[in-house]
Design a protein that fits this description.
This protein has about 160 residues and is mainly alpha-helical. It has one domain.
Amino acid sequence: MTRSKARHLIAADPTLSKNLALVRSITGFGEISATILLAELPNVEPRGSPDIADFTPKALAAFVGLSPSEHSSGTSVRRPGKVSRIGTERLRSTLYMCALSAKRSNKPLAAFVARMTAAGKPPKVILIAVARKLLVYAHAVIRTQKAFESSPDALLPT
């Protein structure tokens, strides 16, 4: 599908238009990446089909393939974990590219990256964690229908 067709389909559907604007409110998502995210995630409408609001953040990360998988056997075999890669590669790579941008320009995520770097995590592990956080942020803005706020107070639990 070309960009012009995708823009036309999104413009024709008020729910998709609103969700595109909500996802784009998150620093790190552009027009193309937000469109790919909305195209690859489960439908928001109609009811009866799997709905993005029905997923927990953990289940959504597993659906996309950003959940960690451990490789161990008994007490002696312990290999480094990896990403499960269950979901679509297109969405995972899009979120990875968004993470490259967001780790520098999204202030809450920049602080998260600094904490993980100080903890000695490898750079690619940090990027996958940032990609997962971006997915969780996108899930939250679609579920609540409120634009993303990057103020530190907005991230505190209530």
